[in-house]
Specification:
By secondary structure, the chain is α+β, with helices and mostly antiparallel strands. The chain is built from five helices and twelve strands. 23% of the residues lie in helices and 30% in strands.
Amino acid sequence: MHLRSTDSTNDRARLLAIGGAPHGTLVTAAAQTAGRGRHGRRWTAPPDSSVLMSLVLRLPPALLPLIAAVAVCEVVGEAARIKWPNDVVIPSASGLSKLAGILAEGRPQEGWAILGIGLNVAVRLEDLPAELRRRTATLGASPDQIEPALERLLRALDRGLEQPEAATLEAWRARDALNGREIAWGPETPAERRQRGRAEGIDGTGRLVVALPDGGHTALDAGEVRLREIG
């Protein structure tokens, strides 16, 4: 299903999944009015500038967000990196600029998930709000490259969904943007400061492994993580 405009491809795909849509049902759009990412953040893309897709998956694998991130990187090329757990970024003078976002959500108890991906194919940074330009990346391609990029992405996802978990973890680790970097996570309030440590890759379930200042280690689930510094 391709829509000229919709509120959110994930919302449309969710309704289809609830209604019994089969595995592999695809929703795409030229524009979204209420696209979103993780933690409820808004995903902004000018019309006819991006791959905007959501895929219905029955019996989705546990590493689905990681599989999706690796698939996007295969489409983008060697420069692409993954900021845990699944933001696809490009290193830039301002740090790590976001090229693609991934949102997996669903009802595990019912055996389905929705995989949403937004990839900036033909975004012109000057068309974005000023506060987004510095941390946004684009392939800089023409709008007629959006559909070919979608086709390559779907093929990469097919391969990723079929490969063993060990292969997914290896491919993800090769693109890890945080490994060795100082990070901070958790809420920062007057009563509680963010925790800090050094990212040391992911474990076998996709959790982020962090070396703590006291010499210990912890593993983070897919919560809020930000870089403390770049370099």
